[in-house]
Amino acid sequence: MAAVQFSVCWLFLCACVIPGVRSCLQCDLAIRHMHEDFISTKHKLTVQEQMDLVKIINHAYVTYQETSTQFSSGLIDFTTLYRAQTEYQSEFRRHWKEPSTGSVQWDMIKILEKGKKILNKHLEVFVAEGLCPNECGLLFQSVMNCSSCQYGLHICQSDTPPKDCGVHQLVASEGKQAVLDCFLPWHRLVVGHAEYHYSWKPGATNFTAEDEFEVLVVTQDSRIVLNQLRVSEQGVYHCFLLDQHGTTISQTHFLLTVTPVPTSPPRQIPTLPSLPHVKVSHVRLHTNTLIIILSLLTSLSITGSMAIILYVGMTVRRQKKGEAEESRQDRLNRHSSP
């Protein structure tokens, strides 16, 4: 009975579950070790059951390798593989903690069927969004080949003109600033060291592939800022992204127009009203009158000062004479007393 049950399980696994799984789980050492640890820790398994589980798992690995090329050309990136691996590991451990409803072989088929859904889900997302995400330019994407289990670079060439990522129109006022940024989200997937090369063609409004550009800056930052713009700085700006081997990954153009600040008319300098005409004779008369007044005031000041000095002198003499008289009278009084 056990042999018949195992035969049914084996046929179901080969016909239904395994062909539907398209992934690189056979390349993941963490998954292999998890399967091996499971078999070695199941002490109640007979030797035959252990051998049967090893055959099922090994056959699954072979089937994975055969069917992986039917989905996403057998390619997968590290992030997608890691997500599928961690979710499958979690489901695998949770499944074997639950009470068993059949043989070990049958339980293995059920967890592999659940693994098929997990793997298909992650691979569909990778093919739709993660594989060759560049809509322009050239990308060497790091992926794993599910047939060889080796990582390599997959060439992602867009359908647009080679490496051209568009032309952007920019308008800024004189004295202000302009920001040039040629970063694209898929630039994060560029392998190794990469640099942005900025150059420009002064005063131009169009360009061709044969035009010569002046080098501005080479930087790891995708954006540059032009401050205190002048009208002479308008023109065509060119941004290249080069990888560590000097290969052009993408190129972007910016057509910058700098609008001049309108000049204000010259300011009118206000003129003072002309002074009224004054006869010279009147001016001389006024001057003589002022001199006479000042002379009188000076004489009065001197006369007043002399009067004050005389008054003070007389007062001091009277005071001294009174003090002398008091002193003499005091001496007489002392002599006349017995």
From TrEMBL:
GO terms for cellular component: acrosomal membrane; plasma membrane. GO terms for molecular function: protein binding involved in heterotypic cell-cell adhesion; signaling receptor binding. Gene3D superfamilies: Immunoglobulins. It comes from the Eukaryota. PROSITE patterns: IG_LIKE. Keywords: Membrane, Signal, Transmembrane, Transmembrane helix. The keyword Transmembrane applies. Residues 1-23 form the signal peptide. Residues 162-250 form the Ig-like domain. SUPFAM superfamilies: Immunoglobulin. It holds the Pfam family IZUMO. Belongs to the Izumo family. PANTHER family: IZUMO SPERM-EGG FUSION PROTEIN 1. This is Ig-like domain-containing protein. It comes from Silurus meridionalis (Southern catfish).
